[in-house]
């Protein structure tokens, strides 16, 4: 497989994916801070990961239509977030002065949506996984619903771990397909996961209105 880990450092997800891939194929890993890439490189060497190609650059500047990335089929998006799901930080959330401000959440939401949207621009991408260690809807359901509206003709949201007990917050279009984890419901840190999967393609004759030879149609 050819995979992208868009916000990779320090490398836990990268090493896990390399294990799933049998250390074969290619994982392009990105982080915009040199010191974080150095930590990632050290961890990958320690874990024996040789299938990664690490690059110190902002993922948003990656030219996804270049020859280098023409075969990318899977993208992992685990962007910067508030970290509000980490148990050691949860107590502070009851204090309005210490909690993440709405302005900060708005900034994070904008960045997260930009990174997730960019992942969809790889020409051959089949599956995109979005995750955070946040419990805030602004960083989770709201990001995914916003991006889904832009790409729903070509992608669907696949239900993650069907038997997992905690799903997305109520009131969203795809709530039942998101995965949430929390100290109260699942006795874990707080996490959120969503999986976008490309819809099956069907040849459409005379689809001139779309300006394409092939049109993505729902497989559901």
Rg measurement, Å = 18 Å
Shape: globular
Secondary structure: number of strands: 10
Class from secondary-structure proportions: alpha/beta
Give the SSE string.
EHEHEEHHEHEEEEE
Number of helices: 5
How much β-strand is present in the residues?
15-25%
Family: Belongs to the class I-like SAM-binding methyltransferase superfamily. RsmB/NOP family.
Domain SAM-dependent MTase RsmB/NOP-type: 1-199
Binding site for S-adenosyl-L-methionine: 7-13, 31, 58, 78
Active site: 133
Describe this structure in words.
The chain has 220 residues and is α/β, with parallel strands linked by helices. The chain has helices at 12-20, 34-47, 87-90, 102-119, 141-151; strands at residues 2-5, 26-31, 52-56, 74-77, 127-132, 155-158, 179-181, 191-198, 201-203, 214-216. Helix 2 links the parallel strand 2 and strand 3 (52-56). The chain starts with a strand and ends with a strand. Mean pLDDT is 88; it is low at 203-220. Pfam families: Methyltr_RsmB-F. It comes from Magallana gigas (Pacific oyster).
Give short descriptive properties of this protein.
two-stranded antiparallel sheet, 220 residues, 25% helix, 5 helices, single chain, disordered C terminus, 21% strand
């Amino acid at each position: 497989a050819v995979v992208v880990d868009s916000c990779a450092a320090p490398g836990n997800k990268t090493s896990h994916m390399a294990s799933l891939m049998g250390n074969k194929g290619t994982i392009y890993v990105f982080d915009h801070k040199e010191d974080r890439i150095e930590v990632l490189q050290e961890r990958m060497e320690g874990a024996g990961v040789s299938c990664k190609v690490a690059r110190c650059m902002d993922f948003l500047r990656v030219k996804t239509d270049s020859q280098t990335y023409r075969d990318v089929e899977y993208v992992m998006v685990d962007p910067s977030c508030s970290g509000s799901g980490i148990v050691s930080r949860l107590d502070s959330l009851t204090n309005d002065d210490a909690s993440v401000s709405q302005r900060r959440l708005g900034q994070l939401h904008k960045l997260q949506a930009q990174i997730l949207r960019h992942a969809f621009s790889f020409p051959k991408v089949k599956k995109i996984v979005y995750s955070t260690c946040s419990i805030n809807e602004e960083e989770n359901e709201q990001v995914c619903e916003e991006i889904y509206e832009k790409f729903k003709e070509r992608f669907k949201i696949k239900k993650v771990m069907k038997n997992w007990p905690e799903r997305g917050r109520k009131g969203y279009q795809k709530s039942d397909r998101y995965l949430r984890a929390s100290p109260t419901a699942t006795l874990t840190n707080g996490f959120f996961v969503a999986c976008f999967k490309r819809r099956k393609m069907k040849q459409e004759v005379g689809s001139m209105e779309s300006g394409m030879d092939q049109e993505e149609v729902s497989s559901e």
